[in-house]
Design a protein that fits this description.
- This protein is an alpha/beta fold.
- The protein is built from eight helices and seven strands, in the order βαβαβαβαβαβαααβ.
- It has helices at about 20-30, 40-55, 70-85, 105-135, 155-175, 195-200, 205-210, 225-230; strands at about 10-15, 35-40, 60-65, 90, 140-145, 180-190, 245.
- The longest helix is centred in the middle third of the chain and has 29 residues, at about 105-135.
- It binds NADPH dihydro-nicotinamide-adenine-dinucleotide phosphate.
- NADPH dihydro-nicotinamide-adenine-dinucleotide phosphate binds near residues 44, 66, 94 and 195.
């Protein structure tokens, strides 16, 4: 299917060494894209790259803390040095923790904001600058969450961070359309990754999550293969500033 063909396309996936990011990276690789995995854990990055190479992708591992401007500058440099260009940026790296609002420290607040908001700002800005230089457009995809819409009382900083990047995406979409750069958001529901291990293991929380999800199952990293390919490819060429829910219907129930 030409509409979904990513041959010659170069993608970055932050947080691509496991979970949802690795699911996106697998989909991109299967569609023919070269993929740069940007995350901190070098051995996990290498394992992800080996898996993507088996799918036929020219994949590379780039150690990067997305909240660190020097790391992001070095990572975009290494990626463009290797591949010569950049066509899509999946700003997906994220972190959370359960902390009651009244007990939240400024340090914990900043820890989450540095990754989930500043990290998205730095990585999408670096990508946009590179795409503007190339003069051939591009696609930026930000991973938000149901938390961008619904408050999660257990994680107020996470909730605020996801609301922030949903709005950042809309502002970027309006500005970058003039360069042919599209900016969209993927908002996952409850997905089986390390981030949600506690909820999966907690009977009552698990039941509540599934009772609220019309498709009555957890999402998996594989559920992100198709959405990633769609948003990177010409199949979504007139879509920008939109939020794609990949949540088994949670957001509409
Ligand atoms: P995981 O915890 O499984 O993976 C998180 C990824 O982010 C890892 O690859 C990790 O790699 C990377 N990461 C974390 N901090 C940094 C950092 N400072 N710099 C670079 N990379 C970093 O989580 P998920 O796959 O579940 O989450 C992916 C995204 O999806 C996140 O944005 C999350 O908020 C969002 N999401 C997840 C949901 C779910 O149910 N799982 C629901 C809604 C949204 P490393 O540690 O090696 O750096």
């Amino acid at each position: 299917m030409e509409l979904f063909d990513l041959t010659g396309h170069v993608s970055v996936v932050t947080g691509g060494n496991r979970g949802i990011g690795l699911g996106m990276a697998r989909g991109l690789a299967k569609a023919g894209a070269s993929v740069a995995v940007w995350s901190r854990d070098a051995s996990r990055n290498d394992a992800a790259v080996a898996e993507l190479a088996e799918l036929g992708s020219d994949a590379i591992s780039v150690g990067c803390d997305v909240g660190d401007p020097d790391d992001v500058a070095a990572a975009i440099g290494a990626t463009v040095d290797h591949f010569g260009r950049l066509d899509s940026m999946f700003a997906n790296a994220g972190t959370t923790a359960a902390v009651a609002f009244e007990e939240m420290t400024l340090e914990e607040w900043n820890r989450v904001m540095d990754v989930n908001v500043t990290g998205v700002f730095l990585t999408t800005q670096a990508a946009a600058r590179q795409m503007i230089r190339q003069e051939s457009g591009g696609s930026i995809v930000i991973t938000a969450s149901l938390a961008a819409t619904f408050g999660i009382p257990q994680s107020p900083h996470y909730t605020a961070s996801k609301g922030a990047v949903l709005q950042l995406a809309r502002a970027e979409a309006g500005r970058l359309a003039r360069y042919g750069i599209r900016v969209n958001v993927i908002s996952p529901g409850w997905i089986t990754t390390e981030m949600t291990e506690d909820v999966q293991a907690h009977d009552k929380a698990n039941q509540l999550a599934m009772a609220r999800t019309p498709m009555r199952r957890w999402g998996t990293p594989e559920d992100f293969e198709g959405p990633a390919v769609f948003l990177a490819s010409p199949a979504s060429q007139f879509m920008t500033g939109s939020q794609m829910m990949v949540d088994g219907g949670f957001g509409s129930a």
